[in-house]
Structures are given as C-alpha cells and as structure tokens.
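Shift notes (night). Ran DUF7730 domain-containing protein while the centrifuge was going.
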Amino acid sequence: MNLFESASVYSGLHVPYTSFCHALISSTHTRTYIKIPHPQHKLHKVMAPKIFRLFKRKRKENDPDFRPKGVAPNAIGISDSTCEVNGDPFNGWKLPIPPPEQRVLKLTRQRSRQQASHFFQLPIEVRTLIYIELMGDRRIHIEHAWMLPSPFRPKLKRDGRRWDWWHGVCQRTGSFVDDRCWDRADERYANRFEGLKSPPAGTKLRGVEWLRCCQIGYEEALTILYGTNVFVLRSGLDAPFIMSRLLSPACSSLITSMDISFDFWYKLDETQATAWETVYPALFDLFEHCFCNVRRLCLTMHMPAWEKVRGTINDGTIEEILAPLERLAQSRDWTRLKLCVPSDWFPCLTGRAEKRSRWELMMADWYERMPVIEDL
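Came back to this:
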C-alpha cells in the first residue's frame, strides 16, 4: 500500500479510470474478420484490440516537443495551467488534482464501536509511542511524479508511466560517508537484476494500512505521521508545489519539518527566466498558505558543475535570492532555518548570514544534492 494513497484525500481518483480501461480491454480480446478491398476478395484476420490506437492521446499542436523536467521553473504541476481537476493519471502533460471541495472535506462519519478494542483501552501516551514506532520520527523522501510504478506493488491493470506517489525512509545518518538513500532507481534495479521481491527492511514506513482500516486510529496517527517526520523533497522545484496541490489542508498544516532542494541555473532561456522570476518567490509563499506550521526548514540550492563556468554570483543576484528568505525568516519563530548553497557561494554569503541571525548558512553536498545530515 502506498503511504500517501492511505493518508491523502486524493487516494481514490486513479481507480475508476483503471477499472474502466480494464473492462474495455477484456471485453474485446477476440479475433474479428473484416472484409477489406482486395483483388482476390480474400478475408484477412485483423486483431480487434488494435482499435485502441484510436484512443491514444494525440499530441496537440501547442504541446512542447518535450515535457519540462521537474527541476525546471516551468515544470508541470507548478502553474495552474499545467493541472487538471480529476485529470487522467496517464496524461503526462497535465497533473491530475482533486477538486477544491474534496480537499477540504472533513471526517463526518459516526465512529463505530472501535473504542471497545483492547488497543484503545491503552493510555493515549502508550498508543502515541506505538504510532511513532510504526510511522514517526524519520526522514521521509517523497515524490509525486510522472513515473513507472514501483515493481514491488501488486500487478497493475495497466502498464506504463503515470502520476503516482513514492516514498522511502532515508538511510543517511551523517556518521558514515558511504550512507545513501534507497530510491526508485534502486527498486527497479534490484527487482530486475537481483530478483528482489519486496523493499529492503527499513526503507518503507510500517503500518500505514492502519490509516485505512480504523477511523479513530487514523485521526490519532495522522498527527504523528505528518507532525513528527522530516519530509525530504529533492526531486525538483516542482515537488513542493505538487505536494501543496494534492494534500488536504488538514494534512499539510500538520507538517512541522521539511528539507527541500532544487537546482539553480545561471543561464535560462526567455521562457524559463520569466517563469523563474515568478516561481522562486512563490516557493516561499507556500509556507504562508500551505505549510503554515513548518518550524524546521532546510533549503538547498544545488548547482550542476557545468553551470559554474557559465557565470558568477554578484551582490545583485544575492539580494534577489535572499529577499524571499528574509521575509520567510521574519514570518514566524523558527526552531531552525537553514540555507545550503554551492561551495563558491559560501564566502559571499557568510557575512550576511552572521548579520542576520534568523537563518543559518551551510555548504551543500554537490554529489547528493543534499546538505550534510544533521539534527534538523
């Protein structure tokens, strides 16, 4: 079971389309004879399922030649124009999002006799410790992206890329230089070449099925899931925007700790440069409207090595970068607010960080696109 399919209000939107497609295909898997023009008027066998090519989404004239990458400022899922309410999860050009009224739904159903369970006769303090052991106090890498499904999920009715959730528990501790995280590529490699049938121990949260089978447990565990974990978004600039569109406000407002990394580029084409001027400040606005209770935040600006030879940072650029951060720093009382930058930026920013004590400065790890793991 997928973590966010259990805990998000968006859990059920993929099912109807998949079921319809499966029923349509299974009802037409028969051979059909079609008479076509031929000099000798012979019958030719034609497979009926070829008709499904007619239903394949055709590329529109205004579609770009390539989907923008998640690291780009014009990535799909950032602007409203790249989203579609109740959209097709198999359409990579539009992020399917729930309707506004669904995102604000609250639990209204009457509780059952779950209180009679022996588990709920335990003190709430003991139940909280159990929830933490199952799904709390961890660093969780999360993505919602256009991807191939995990090979460890049950056999799906339709293959191919789709919009889907993925999560993994971070394996890095900072105490050993070779620590690394188990990611989606590792899953596919281990399944295909090593015959692995399930995720390695410790790489997934345990007990998330609990969120679907018990309403009282759901209400109690939700605070632990969102309130005690560090959510790591390092897949691209689009990740925090997508997360804010899919999670209900009841869930996103419970998040207290985040670690976000994204690429910074010196040279952008005209379209991307215009998008960057809008998207970069909007990233910080998310913490006012969506992630309003985050008190521990680490922002990592990663720069690919080839970008370092294409330009240099100057005082004007620094001020443009720091202005939204300064506004965010003054918006609330932070437990910790860190900015991680490329190594060649570090000397330029050290003095400013010392004067502005509301945030800390740190050097980014180039290879992992992550800062050194500390107690965030």
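Confidence is low (pLDDT under 50) at residues 9-56, 367-376. The first helix runs from residue 3 to 7.
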